[in-house]
Amino acid sequence: MTYISVPSHARPNRQPLINRMTRRYDLWRQRRALARLNDTALQDIGLTRKEAETEARRPIWDAPESWRC
């Protein structure tokens, strides 16, 4: 039987499942908090109500590219 070995530098750098789940939960919490901000707070961070609601409705697996490790 032949085994194919992949060099460690060629393997994707995957984080443990608990880390990925924690990041997704954090993202969910942040989006809920964003949805609860009042219009003045949203204006302070440069978002409209519609933009905040759109972001808050995104699914949990729709994470920023930098989180997909």
Instruction: Please summarize the sheet with the most strands.
Output: none
| Span of the ends, CA to CA | 32 Å
Q: Got a strand count?
A: 0
DSSP helix fraction: 40-55%
How confident is the prediction overall: mean pLDDT?
Answer: 84
Could you walk me through the main structural features you see in this protein, from its secondary elements to its overall organization?
It contains 3 helices and no strands. With 69 residues, the protein is mostly helical. The chain is 49% helix and 0% strand. It has helices at 17-36, 39-44, 49-56.
How are the elements arranged and paired?
Blueprint: H1 17-36, H2 39-44, H3 49-56
Descriptive terms for the model:
69 residues, elongated, mainly alpha
Give a short synopsis of this structure.
The protein has three helices and no strands. It is mainly α and 69 residues long.
